[in-house]
Amino acid sequence: VSHDFNHNPLSSIFDANHTKVSGKLLKVLSWYDNEWAFSNRMLDNCLALHNAE
């Protein structure tokens, strides 16, 4: 259930059980908390810039 992934620091979680192949079509499902994951990536960028100085 999507609410199980709220406040997860990862950008997305791959759901292998919902991966399907049909001929040349590949369907992949990934769960994510859009705002939380984006905020975590922005923090990663700020820390990387700070550590680069």
Automatic annotation (TrEMBL):
Oxidoreductase in keyword set: yes
Keyword annotations from UniProtKB, A to Z: Oxidoreductase
Keyword match Oxidoreductase: yes
InterPro entries, A to Z: GlycerAld/Erythrose_P_DH, GlycerAld_3-P_DH_cat
Domain of life according to the entry: Bacteria
Pfam family for this entry, one: Gp_dh_C
One function term, GO molecular function aspect: oxidoreductase activity, acting on the aldehyde or oxo group of donors, NAD or NADP as acceptor
Domain Glyceraldehyde 3-phosphate dehydrogenase catalytic per the UniProt entry, residue ranges: 1-32
Protein name per the record: Glyceraldehyde 3-phosphate dehydrogenase catalytic domain-containing protein
